[in-house]
Amino acid sequence: MQKIRMLVVDDHTIVRDGICALLALAADIEVVGEAENGREAVEKVKQLAPDVVLMDIVMPIMDGLEATRRIRKEFPETKVLVLTQYDEEEYIFSIIEAGAKGFISKTAASSELASGIRAVHHGASFLSPTAAKVFVEDFQLGASMRGKQDPYHQLTNREREVLKLVAEAYTTREIADILAVSPKTVEGHKTNLMDKLDIHNKTDLIKYAIRKGIITV
Amino acid sequence: MQKIRMLVVDDHTIVRDGICALLALAADIEVVGEAENGREAVEKVKQLAPDVVLMDIVMPIMDGLEATRRIRKEFPETKVLVLTQYDEEEYIFSIIEAGAKGFISKTAASSELASGIRAVHHGASFLSPTAAKVFVEDFQLGASMRGKQDPYHQLTNREREVLKLVAEAYTTREIADILAVSPKTVEGHKTNLMDKLDIHNKTDLIKYAIRKGIITV
DNA sequence: ACCAAAAACAGGGTTAAATCCCACAGAATT
DNA sequence: AATTCTGTGGGATTTAACCCTGTTTTTGGT
After folding, report:
1. Gap from B7 CA to D14 C1', in Å?
2. Mutate to test the interface with A, among B16, B203, B212 (most CBs of A within 10 A)
3. Which residues in B lie closer than 8 A to residue A165 (C-beta atoms)?
4. Mean pLDDT, rounded, for A7-12
5. How far is CA B157 from each of CA B179, B193, B207, B209, rounded to the nearest angstrom?
6. In this predicted model, what pLDDT tens digit does every residue of A150-164 receive, in sequence order?
């Protein structure tokens, strides 16, 4: 039987070696190389022509997304399976767009790792349940806006104004005074903008505002 | 020969299992349990009384620092070796103060992992070169103001716990359920901790939590 | 071993806010 | 002419915050 030839890319040596030790338990998978950043990953793909690359995202020098783009372009035969950390569900489209055949969360069961590798090797896509959900929802929402996954541009001017004030810790009443409207109106805008952003609590709203640069930490 | 009894704590299943697979290669080390957040870690220490805990820092529900504090206090026989991600050199003092016997970066060679475990098990401290450097520099600079004037140190364990959960967007009722106390109690802790931090709204509280690294953006 | 202080716990009553459902006018689109 | 989007609100209900009070447990100190 022909083994699946793997390249494992992660800047954390201990994590990388741990994953290799895990994969050593799978009889049909062989780790033929490792890399600790995106640049190294691209080089190793060139040297080794692995079947599948398991790619971390956050890395120094060159991150996993950029490396995936280059591998897809220069070595389209090599499939990339991306390993995600936490709330990287937001980057799902970027990851797929970069050319990854699938991705799996580090919080997934370790048994799924080999399944994911086999899936992408056989030409299938592999998406975690969370990812699949995002895709399905996107499709259900019209699938017209694929790639422009950031709903910020959908906000009206008024909603952006309210978002900023909310993130700046003004109360509903204060915002109503500032904008010279009823608190009820402000609540309406808040409800609408949170629906559009698919955010359902203040914490995530503030994190969003920080990521968008609307406020600073 | 008596094996070193280990508990491995990390919320990423794949990473955790990988580390276990690595440690399985060391003849003198036996992984007797795993946990995927700080709270579980403390419970498992109580149940299993391991010799050494390998502890990740960034985790939901209860982070590794808080768990380390509790383990040090309740089960001083159990040594904690902290696993650090990236620029957590800033937290070196917090880590040591929390009671860890040492810490090792995930970017360290995987062979060092077993060395670190053996070191802390034998009562020694284990610091990475970067950490040692920070210690030396701090010493040379006079080591005067360490942890001063940050009211975070005034918080009680319970308050820190509540702070993290609030910042993770759990509602008062959910926190009450998680901690198995009355919502009224949670409110009390929240009031007290916000008074101590001189923070009077949720927005600033969340920003504070982000600055302190209690949660991530 | 004891006392005082702090911490954790929780109830009552009041006020403020969020949530849900609904409505309507004006502008822009179709 | 009809429809959608945006900004604007009301009413009713649920939920959380706030302030005050108290008990039990834990902790620290001499």
Report:
1. 44
2. B203
3. none
4. 96
5. 12, 11, 20, 15
6. 678 788 888 888 888
Res A140 pLDDT > 70: no
pLDDT at residue A128 is higher than 80: no
CA–CA distance, A180 with A174 (Å, rounded to integer): 9
Alpha carbon of A1: minimum distance to chain B alpha carbons (Å): 25
Q: Kindly report the pTM of this predicted structure.
A: 0.76
Q: Quickly count: other Cβ atoms within 10 Å of residue A43's Cβ.
A: 13
Size of interface A-B (CB pairs under 8 A): 107
Compare CB distances from B21 to A22, A201, A204 and report the shortest one's residue. A22
Residues A176-190 have pLDDT tens digits of 888 888 889 999 899
The pLDDT assigned to A129 comes to 67
Q: Name the band, by pLDDT with cuts 50, 70 and 90, for residue B145.
A: very low
Nearest to A12 among B25, B107, B169 (CB): B107
CB atoms within 10 A of CB A129: 9
